[in-house]
Amino acid sequence: MTKNQKGFTLVESLLVLSIFMIISFITAFSLQPEQSVLEDEVFLTQLRADLLYGQQFAISHQKEVTIVLLPSKHKYNLSLQGRLPAIIDRSFSPNIYLTEGSMPLSFKFLPDGNINKFGSFFIETKEKEYRMTFLIGRGRFYVTEQ
Q1: Per the omega criterion (within 30 degrees of 0), is the bond before 104 cis?
Q2: Fewer CB within 10 Å, N side or C side of the chain?
Q3: 53/47 Cα distance (integer angstroms)
């Protein structure tokens, strides 16, 4: 063996590894706020999709679909005329809070797709507050940021 071998020493390898770990930790901590924003968007998108599914289910099967939002249990369900088993039974993050506004947290889609009550309720997350509003008429709804 010759004394002039090219390679990295243990100190050089540990230095590179420690720099890599520091950069990895900084990246992981900077992504934490993004996770809560994505959690909010996923919940709102899923809730909209489930409500549209419930409305279409009511129309296609010509039966009432009951929607019950249970904020204390962090879940909601859609069931056929209030009977079990539920069509959809979904849990959501404990960081999301639902509160009644001018509309209770239990309502129905009628067989023609209309809603039996109208008004709005509030969705509060760590970052933002939203209002979900149901209109008189064809059961249309939308979400606005407060």
Answers
A1: no
A2: N
A3: 10
Cβ partners under 8 Å of residue 89, min gap 6: 75, 77
CA dist 96 → 34, 48, 53, 92 (Å): 16, 15, 22, 7
Tell me the pairing of strands 97-100 and 88-91: unpaired
**What's this model's pTM, rounded to 2 decimal places?**
0.74
| Biggest CA pair distance of the chain | 88
Output phi, psi for 50, to 5 deg. -65, -40
Contacts of 13 (CB under 8 A, 6+ apart): none
Q: For residue range 90-132, what is the model confidence (pLDDT) as tens digits?
A: 999 998 999 999 999 999 999 999 999 899 999 998 888 999 9
Tokens at 108, concatenated: 């129905």
∠ Cα 124 127 128 (to 5°): 50
**First CA to last CA distance, the chain:** 73
Say which residue the tokens 């067989």 belong to: 111
